[in-house]
Design goal:
The protein is mainly alpha-helical. The chain has 25 helices and 5 strands. The chain starts with a helix and ends with a helix. Bound molecules: zinc ion (ZN). The site of zinc ion (ZN) has 8 residues, from helix 6 and helix 9.
Amino acid sequence: MLKPAAIALALSLVIHPALPQADELDKLNLPEMGDSSGSLLTIAEEKELGEEFFRYLHAEMNINKDAEIQEYIQTIGSRLTQHSDNPAYRFHFFVVMENDINAFAGLGGYIGVNSGLILMTEAESELASVMAHEIAHVTQRHLYRGVEAQQRLSIPTLAATLAAIAIGTQAPQLGQAALAAIQAGNVQFQIDFTRAHEEEADRVGMQTLASSEYDPRSMPIFFEKLQQSSRYYGRDIPEFLRTHPVTASRISDTRGRSETYPYKQYPDSLAYQLTKAKLRVLTDTNTTEVQKYFQAKLTLGTTEQRTVAQYGMGLVALTLQKFQDAESIFQSLAQTYPNQVQYGTALARTALEARRFDVALDRYKKLIEKFPNKEAIKLEYAESLLKTGDNKQAQKILATLNADTQRLPVYTQLLAQVYGNLHQPAQSHRYLAEYYYATGQTREAILQIRLAKNSRGLTPQLEAILDERLKFFLNREKDETR
Ligand SMILES: [Zn+2]
């Protein structure tokens, strides 16, 4: 029988500092490393599993909803995957708003990075090195290879299991439920966690990192940082930190390999600095401390670093609803750096939150003209249009979002609002159902579909869609509660 720790040990794919004691691994009762006799999942199954995995994470964790942060992490991820050994594979990157230092990969190319890890990095290449390592786990198919075909768990149960494993101790209840499911389902996971896989992910990850024009030397630097940080955890070291030890040999191998690349400077993007500033404001519960943090940096470092501190101060002012302060900070930044999109959106957001709707709409509109490919602006613009009752225009803007953005739960949530305002309750309930489903709330999804079916004036086409979705959700609920 697998102990919870053993399962988490086996499948949580993260970068981990060294174990406090070398014999720790044995105590954790590693499962057998048999050969991969289990069959691989089909592409469709893997995709479905990935979506389910993401759904469960939504139900259990605080997945970032800030469109700008989402856009940033996806941009870094895309730059890396384009240079990975499988550029055709579709990846989905997201940020988890948790202070623990963690990053993990699920099936279907879903890669999560905790805000705590991002804030711990001191260079963009360090963040990229973690992501490149996770990407390599996926492209090298380390995640797991052997779900026995004959005794396979249902996809939802399997996804719940993987989600529990990925987030480990952060959701103990889900962990227990998943464990019971594994035992009941008599599934043989053939665990592909080996030291060799870690080394392979490092090696392949570094190639990806270097060809994506990130600093290969950042990988050993960040590993060392992780190793040092683990000393502070003592016996309370988080589950994931136990699992993939960053050994001295891993660090020295990585360093040796990184030094074969010619030395050069890799400046951080300003977007990296601004994203970190925003994460700091969004994740810290002590606003006064954050304010002090940025205050101290206002007069330090390069011009760019000082502007980042100003941006941070502006976000703090916005959090405290000191709209005039925020307005004057962002005005000055946006005027000085008109091509830096984050300053423009912060200024528009300030008007929106101060309920100066006309100003906000005007600002977003101009930003969209200037930065037509920025999905985050479109989402915020649609949100402002909804607040001012311009539902038709909001609908139009939502229709221009790309496929990746339309996968985000916020999309169906906004669409549900649009239809609600347009007095089309069937469509409103339908999209609200999709929102609930996407965020792991299957029962609420079923309720919404039923409300949609009871609405007046359904076309036969919509009725057919609703019937199909209801059937699908009911099946999922059955699987989940089994
Ligand atoms: Zn790893």
